[in-house]
Amino acid sequence: MKKPRKPLAVPAKKTLNPFEVHINKQKMTVLGRKTKNDRGLPGVSRAKALKKRKDTLLQEYKLQHKSNRFTDKRIGERNLNMTDEDKVVARYTAIRKKAHKKSIFNLADDEVLTHKGQTLAEIEKFDDPRSDDEDSLEEGKSGNLDANFVEDAHFGGGILRNTGKEGAKTHRELIDELIAESKKRKAEKQKVKEATLELTEKLDTEWKDLLPLVSKTQKKEEEKMTVDDYDKVMRELKFEARGTVSDRLKTEDEIAREENQKLEELEQERQERMKGFEETEKKNTHRSADDLDDDLVYESDPEYMLSYNTEGEANLEIDAQINGKNVGESHDDDEEEPENEEEAEGAGAEEDDTASEEDDDLSDLKDDTSEESDVEETQETQPQTIEPDGDSLKKQEMMEKARQELPYTFNLPDSYESLQSLLENQTPSHQGVIIERMIKCNHPSLAEKNKQGLKVLFAYLLQHLNDCAEDSMEKCYTTFSVLAPHLFDLTQLDKENAYHSIKEVIKEKHEEFRKSKKKYPGLEILIFLKLVSLLFPTSDFRHQVVTPCFVFIEQMLYKCRIKSRKDIAYGLFLVTLVLEYTTLSKRYLPAAINYLGGILHMAVPKIGVKLIKVNPPFQPTTNSLVLFNDCTSEDSSLKMRLSDLAEEKIDDLFKIRALNTTLKLIEEFDNNFSALPSNLEIFKDILAYMELLPTRNYPQKVCTQFERTSQQLKSRRSDKNLDYVVMPAKRPKALRLYEPKIEEVFDGKRRKVQSKEKAERDKLLHKLKKETKGALREIRRDKSFLGRVKIQRRMQSDNERREKVKRIYSEAAMQQSELNSLERKNKRKK
User: Are residues 81 and 73 in contact, defined by beta-carbon separation less than 8 angstroms?
Assistant: First the structure.
């Protein structure tokens, strides 16, 4: 029978010592509340905390200010995510980086790859070097000794071998036979190599002869094959022209120096032409002694060309003249002195002709310098009796033309009056050329003082535009169109100076405008406002020049009264500038839309006592632009004219132009604001005015523009569905019921009635406060623990010191006792 199995031993339940259990008393006992910390073991908890501090804080305190610890600093040892292979690769990479001492940009000289003692660059030359070490492994072709000879010589008995003759071979004979056999085999090997090389070269030559035939057959086959689109594109890409390396681009300073040098050369040439020197006179071409004038071209008339017939007679008479000079006269009396100045002049001319015939063989007589000097002397002495010839007239014409040309080099003006004297009596195009050459000749890269001079030039040009606007508006606009590119160049050279200069001008004009706000300022402000859009970016959210101009334009459109033709044209010009300013930024300026609506209101007839509402500065009763006459057959230009800014009277043609311009501006603004959600509300008043505007008396072009603009505004209304703002529907208020308020989790605490976010915030603050107090408590306990450790160490060191002192005292006492005993013994002996 089986013995009964013993029951497993159940560990006895550990009973707590009642003296170690601490009971936390509560002020109030609440039924159903579960308490977690009603009982505790402070001794056990204190022991656990002490053990934990000994394992952590005490160990750190012991190792404090010590660096004699072993740390494995190998790459990857501290990184637990790296495998062994990754560690090896990282270490190898570090070694390679450390060994790489050359420049990182010298990529071609890092490593030289070789193969059998040769670099890859040498192997890629595809040479066919013949090496002496190349031996064939086939039997019978090697230069080594054969097996029979080696067997007989080394393993066949040597000197003991029976040769059939008396005696045996000596060692000397064997060595000689070995050398002879080796030379023989090397010679045979060399012959085989030479024969192989000759055959190879012969084969290469024959293949080169056959190569053209093979290529032709291949081309024929390729031509027969149909070429698809892919092959066609591939060949185009294959034979596409490659880009070539070009010269570097020149810097701005180099370009400025070249332009300055070019202008100086042109100015020097003009100065020489003013003095009578032609360009051909400066070019002294070299002529050798053997020059036969094969390329000589006569520019004179062939009718007066000196030639001879078969009988030897000249084609010109003896006293004939060519270009006013005698031909065929005798030169025997050349050395005789002339009796008067006329004879002296003729003699000088004859001498010049003779020298010219001897040197140049009847070359062009117009370039003769000595003749020119004689003619000038004659004109000075007898201007009334001697008429200049054709050559002198041409030179005088050339000199006069050179004087009338503009100089190529200009210095910067030292005052505004000097600039005005330079530009006065010059056409606007010539003024632009002068300013352009002045900027090129005084570029900031050529001299340090030029930068300051160009700053002053920019201010002078602004003043020049202002003066032109005061004199004549037409002249001002022509001058502005010519000088605007050069003002832009000056702005790019020094933007800060351009900012301050334009800003000061706008500020000055605005102060003048504030003195009479109801009246439009001078026409020069239009030029400066247009210049701002050309020189500075108008799409910035805020700009130190453009933003004040926006404010200035808005004040003029809102405050200035509209009474005459020039006021309407002035306002339309300002609205056009606003459109130009806001094309990129899509910015909305209410004053511009209000002004366009006011122009439409002026064109609507007022019937009866009912007035149409309009915003200032327009009057509800004005009808200055109402077209009463029939102008349907009018075919003049519909663009605004420059004269509209100066005239007062409003005629029918101006009414048509103003309305057409207004409709076009409304269309452009609508396209510009199409993305805005308030586009429909912006043009609400304008659409109302257009519905009241009659178009029966306007030309067909204006009617077409009116229909297109009206249809565009109406389509915006039909495409947009307005969602009215309504109050949210209120939920019905529930009846007050006397039922208990049930909480999801009841912990016995009364909480404040507050929002979820505030409750969550209070909860986090309470948790933060609790954790902060706990952290401070732990820090205090750590500090007290370290204090106890320090006291224990201090007490231990003090105890050790006391023990050492006691030991020293005891040893000293023993020594003293022994010394005393010796002294007593010595006394007894005595």
Answer: no
Longest dimension (CA), the chain: 182
**Helix H segments across 472-494?**
473-493
CA–CA dist 498, 487 (Å, integer): 9
DSSP 125-143: T---PPPTT----STTT-S
Task: Give the pair of three-digit tokens for residue 571.
Answer: 């306002």
When mean pLDDT is compared over 96-105, 172-181, 584-593, 674-683, the highest value belongs to 584-593
Cα distance between residue 391 and residue 371, in whole Å = 9
Burial 47-65 (b: 16+ CB within 10 A, else e): eeeeeebeeeeeeeeeeee
User: CB-based contacts of 331: which residues, under 8 Å, 6+ apart?
Assistant: 350, 354
Distance CA 39, CA 370 (A): 135
The encoded tokens of residue 453 equal 């001079």
Pick the closest to residue 177 from 143, 141, 135, 145 (CA basis).
Answer: 145
Helices 700-719 and 652-672 sit at what angle, rounded to 10 degrees? 30
Whole-number Cα distances in Å, 364 to 204, 392, 555, 793: 68, 14, 74, 123
**pTM > 0.85:** no
Radius of gyration of the chain (CA): 58
The tokens 């570090």 sit on which residue? 94
Question: What is the Cα–Cα distance from 638 to 626, expressed in whole angstroms?
Answer: 17
DSSP state of 35: -
- Cα angle value 60/63/69 (rounded, 5°): 125
pLDDT digits (tens, 9 = 90+) for 571-593: 999 999 999 999 998 889 999 99
Scanning 240-325, the segments in alpha helix (DSSP H) are 252-274, 279-282
Q: What is the pLDDT at residue 28?
A: 79
Structural tokens at position 79: 């990184």
CB 536 within 8 A of CB 545: yes
Q: Do 352 and 360 contact (CB within 8 A), yes or no?
A: no
pLDDT digits (tens, 9 = 90+) for 684-738: 889 989 988 888 889 999 999 999 999 998 888 777 776 778 888 888 888 877 7
Query: Dihedral angle at the C-alpha atoms of 35, 36, 39, 44, nearest 10 degrees?
Result: -170
Contact by Cβ (8 Å): 502, 533: no
Q: How far is CA 737 from CA 376, 626, 745, 752, 753, in A?
A: 130, 74, 22, 22, 19
Query: Contact, 673 vs 679, CB < 8 A?
Result: yes
Which residue, among 684, 680, 668, has the nearest Cα to 717 in the 3D structure? 680
764-781 burial, b at 16+ Cβ within 10 Å, e below that, comes to eeeeeeeeeeeeeeeeee
Tokens of 455: 């700053």
Closest CA relative to residue 477, chosen from 429, 527, 436: 527
In this structure, how many other beta carbons lie within 10 angstroms of the beta carbon of residue 428? 18
Per-residue model confidence as pLDDT tens digits over 114-162:
776 677 666 665 555 555 555 544 444 444 556 666 666 665 554 445 4
**Phi/psi class of residue 167: alpha, beta or left (left: φ > 0; alpha: ψ in -120 to 50)?**
left
- 617 upstream amide cis, omega within 30 of 0: yes
Say if CB 399 and CB 274 are below 8 A apart. yes
**What local confidence, expressed as pLDDT, does residue 9 receive?**
55
The pLDDT assigned to 784 comes to: 95
Measured CA to CA, the distance from residue 427 to residue 727 in angstroms comes to 71
